[in-house]
Design goal:
Distance between the termini: 25 Å
Structural class: alpha+beta
Helix content: 40-55%
Strand content: 15-25%
Largest sheet: 3 strands, antiparallel
Number of domains: 2
Length: about 100
């Protein structure tokens, strides 16, 4: 699974010690990620994307922008956003 690094920390790898920086995306097996998740050092990318999706939809609602207005103004962005956000919309009950 993919995770976003939230805090700087060092890890030992087969290639030596490596320092991970906030914002970096890493792939880890869940059993390896548990301790880092509990220490708030990483967050599943899925959660990060969902938070950004919620923030974007809140902003759109605040500015009273409809899906039709977004489709008309930025059709490419609308199509990409709809494709990427569909799983999160369904999960949150918005789709």
């Amino acid at each position: 699974m993919k995770y976003q690094v939230l805090d700087t920390f060092k890890v030992k790898t087969s290639q030596g010690e490596m320092e991970l920086q906030p914002g970096q995306i890493i792939t880890l097996a869940h059993d390896k990620a548990i301790r880092l998740l509990n220490e708030d050092k990483i967050k599943p990318v899925r959660d990060v994307i969902f938070e950004k999706y919620q923030s974007l939809t809140d902003w759109l609602q605040q500015h009273d922008l409809t899906a039709d207005e977004i489709k008309e103004t930025l059709p490419g962005l609308y199509a990409d956003g709809a494709k990427v956000c569909a799983p999160f919309a369904r999960e949150s009950g918005c789709g």
